[in-house]
Amino acid sequence: MGAKRCDDLRLTGSGGSNRVMEAEFKRLVMRSPFQVRVEKPLREGDATLLYPFDARIAWVAACYHRTSSRISWDLCSSEAVRLEPLYADLLPALSADDRLPGGKHLRFSVEVGASTDFEAGPLQLRGVVKNAIVEALTPRGVTAEIEADSPDVVFVARRAGPAEARRTVVGIDIGGGARHRRGARVAMGPAPLRETMAAQLIILSRWDARTEPLVDPMAGGGTIPIEAAGLAAGAAIRKPPDLAFGHLAAFKDMPRDVPDLFPGTVPRILSLDVDPARIPAMVGNLRAAGLTGPSHEDSIVIAEQDVCALTPEYIERMLPAARGMKPGVFCFNPPYGVRMGALDDKKLLALYSDMGRVLARFKGWRAACFVANPQFIEVFGHAPIMTKPATNAELRGNFLVYQF
Ligand SMILES: C[S@@+](CC[C@H](N)C(=O)[O-])C[C@H]1O[C@@H](n2cnc3c(N)ncnc32)[C@H](O)[C@@H]1O
Q: Are 71 and 63 in contact (CB under 8 A)?
């Protein structure tokens, strides 16, 4: 047996996100400060991409990639499914690994990912990985200790690989933890869309920020408009000083600054909701994301509006800067009826049907939504040009794209 050295950049997303994650990453790397091309990744299942590790592309992924949920650097893997053989495999592999963090003192934690086919509980698995790391670092003069709250470096242990060749993989989280946490949202609505899902939705809509306006007619806390603005500018979601880079020699020559990758793109975004109580939350979230103030004034517009009364004239009036642009894109996630207790079923179906009627007035526009209500497609009354199953915070649904 023995552990095998790996050297992969692992991007993990929500179910079915492989293609979108890959397309986004390719585009970002092309605009990055480095003369580097991404190779075709290996796909593990439908929600994991593996790239040969290169600090430059890892830097781009960690700082800018919006559709992945976690990003890690795989260091080694073992066939072991029990604790003792795993320790016996990991210790020599980690001891000989010059990619581990250096310094005199290291505060670290170990997170355990998917591990149901490991023959011990996650806490025991974590304990063994932790012991192997401490033992591997001690002879180098590094005192390593567990620090759960603000670790310098987070290691990750998980079972991964194709069903017939599953392995226990140990790596380092380089993406700053759960990436749907952008660190900006100050107020959550009753049914927020995860940021990673919002980014996927916008990419699936094929929005071109330079030529098309984007309208979220039911924006709640503004997640979709905020992600849209970030995607348009190629804005970073993580800064190198907040990541493990400072402790890893591989990243020592990487830039500390994270400029926009698409500078100069001024998107035209309209963020609407019928509920006046949502507006302050939307404004607060936009402000926290740095998207308010004079430079954004006619780029992102917020208003209280019922989607059922939406007209092309209204959009032109509210978003005058979009005049002369091509037909635009609606991106939204409507109430599902699951978490929105206030709306009864009949009202909800009437809303879907009204929306189908109203949005069809927008000739040449596309609409992309994430919907977790199986009746939506029928009641909305149009045939989607794309349907893609997806899950938002345990709620199963579909990404749907329409062309009007
Ligand atoms: C599922 S939430 C959207 C969540 C949002 N994407 C976010 O991440 O915060 C649905 C939103 O639709 C809004 N809504 C319901 N009926 C509407 C209508 N007739 N017109 C406009 N917005 C409406 C609700 O107020 C709610 O904020």
A: no
CATH numbers and ranges of domains, the chain: 4-173 (3.30.2130.30), 195-403 (3.40.50.150)
CA distance 395 to 363: 32
Would you say the CB of residue 134 lies under 6 angstroms from ligand 1? Answer: no
Whose CA is closest to 176, among 88, 272, 258, 91? 258
Residue pLDDT, tens place only, 88-134: 999 999 999 999 998 899 999 999 999 999 999 999 999 999 999 99
Q: What is the distance between the alpha carbons of residues 179 and 57, in angstroms, rounded to a whole number?
A: 17
Angle between helices 223-233 and 278-288 (to 10 degrees): 30
- Find out whether 111 and 154 touch, Cβ atoms under 8 Å: yes
Q: What is the DSSP letter of 277?
A: T
333 Rama sector, left if φ>0, alpha if ψ -120 to 50, beta otherwise = beta
- For every residue of 146-166, DSSP letters joined together read E-SSS-SEEEEEEEES-GGG-
Q: Which amino acid is at 343?
A: L
Residue to substitute in 185, 194, 275 for testing ligand 1 pocket (most ligand atoms within 8 angstroms of CB): 275
Q: How far apart are CA 131 and CA 109, in angstroms?
A: 11
The pTM of the full predicted model, rounded to 2 decimals, is: 0.95
**How is the beta sheet containing 167-173 ordered, strand by strand?**
42-44, 48-52, 4-12, 70-78, 167-173, 153-160, 105-112, 143-146
**pLDDT digit string (tens) for 219-242?**
999 999 999 999 999 999 999 999
Ligand 1 close to Cβ of residue 282 (< 6 A): no
Pair 50, 9: CB distance under 8 Å = yes
> Within 10 Å of residue 363's Cβ, how many Cβ atoms?
8
